[in-house]
Design brief:
Layout lengths: L10 E8 L2 E2 L5 E11 L22 E8 L9 H15 L6 E7 L3 E5 L6 E2 L2 H11 L10 H13 L5 E8 L8 H11 L4 E7 L5 H10 L4 E4 L5 H13 L3 E9 L5 E9 L3 E2 L5 E2 L4 E9 L2 E10 L8 E12 L5 E14 L3 H5 L3 H24 L3 H18 L2 H7 L3 E5 L4 E4 L5 H9 L10
Parallel strand pairs: 2-18, 4-5, 4-8, 8-9, 9-10
Antiparallel strand pairs: 1-3, 3-16, 5-6, 5-7, 11-15, 11-17, 12-13, 12-16, 14-15, 17-18, 19-20
Amino acid sequence: MAIFSKSNVPQFSVDVYQNEYLPEGGREVNAVVTVTATGGGTIGSAVAAPHLYSPGEGPSAAVVLMVDCSGSMDYPPTKMRNARDATAAAVDTLRDGVHFAVVAGTHLAREVYPGEGGLAVAGPDTREQAKQALRKLSAGGGTAIGTWLRRADRLLASADVAIRHGILLTDGRNEHESPEDLKAALDACAGRFTCDARGVGTDWEVKEVTGIASALLGTADIVADPTGLAADFTQMMETAMGKEVADVSLRLWTPAGATVTFVKQVAPTVEELTGRRTEAGPRAGDYPLGSWGDESRDYHLCVEVPPAAVGQEMLAARVSLVIPHSDGSVQNLGAQGLVRAVWTDDLAASTSINPQVAHYTGQAELAEVIQEGLDLRKVGDMDGATAKLGRAVQLASASGNADTAKLLAKVVDVVDAATGTVRLKAKVEEADEMTLETRSTKTVRVKK
C-alpha cells in the first residue's frame, strides 16, 4: 500500500461526449470518454523537484533501468558513453525513497547495481554508488530483450510498493531470442509493471520497441541522435516519478442485449484496449489504463445496443474507474460517466456526429494509414504507399496535427494537403522514416 500525504492523491473525473440520438432501429452508440486525474502534486507530466520529497511523502515506487550493452552499442563508441550518461541522469532524477536497480542487457541480463537480486533505496549515497557502477558499463554480447524484462520483473516484485516501472533502452534488433520468447516475456510481465521503451540510433526494429511499450502500457520513442538520450531519460524519469496511482482500470458495464464493439485509447496516443478486457461480473469488463499522475486521457468506446422504436431511450453503458486487487477486492475511484441511447425521428439529430467522436475517428485512421503506407513503401508498392500517405497528410492537416504533418513532410512532398495529393520522396533518411513510424500513434486533442 502506498504511503503518502492525502493531499498528493489525484482525484479522478470522467466526462462523456457523444450524440445519444439514433434513428429508429439504430444500434451503434459511440462516445469519447475523457478521464482526468488532478491534484496529485505534479505539474504537467513531471513531478517538480523530485529530491525535495522526504521518504514516504511520494507514493512508494520502484524503477528498474534496462540498458542495452550489446556489441553494437560500441558503434560508434560515443553511443555507449551517451547511454551511461543518460542512465546517470535518470538516476539523478529519482525521488528519495524510491527503490531502484540498473540492469545491463545483452543476451543475458546482468544486475549492475545494486546486485544480488535486490533493489537499492534512492538517496544521495545510493545515487552516487549507482553512477560509479555505470561508469564500468561496456559493450559486448547479443540482444535478448525478453531476458531483460523477466529480470526487471523479478527485481520489481521484490519490493512492496504501489508503483512499478521499467525504462528500457535498445539500439538493435532482438536477434538472440525468438519472437515467441519475447512475446512470452511480455505476456508474463503485462499488468505487473509499466515500461517505457526507447530505440537509439536507427538499427533497431520499430515494431519491437513499440510492441514492448504497448504491451506494458508505457511510451515508445526514437532517439536518433544518442546525444539526446540524457534529456529524454531525465524527462522519462520525471514522468515516472509523477505517477501516483497504479493499475487503474476502466470498468464498462452494459445492459442485457448490448455488446462492446471496441474500446481504445485515442489521446495522447492511439492504443487498442478491446482485447485486454478482463471480466468483472455480470455484463461488466475491466480495461487496463496503467499508472496515473496529474494528466488527462481520452478513450473512444463503441457499443451495439438492441434496436428500439422512436421515443425509447436506454442506458447504453456505465463507465467507472476502479483498481482491482489480486485478492478479488476492488477500490472504486469515485468517478462515473453514463452513455445513453435515445431513438428519434429527427433526422438532423440522429445523423449529427459528435465533434470529439469525429476527431478521434480521424486520428485513429491517421495512425493506421501511416503504418500501412510505410509498410507498403518497404515492400515496393509505391502507388499504394502514395495513396495511404496522401490520406495521412489530408487527415493530419484537417485535424491540426502539426507534429505528424511535419514528420510526413520528410517522407513525402506535399502538393496539396487538403486533398491529400503527395509524391513519395526519392530519398528518405532512415531516421525520418523511423521517427514517423514510431510516433504515428501520437494524437492531438480536439480543438476547443
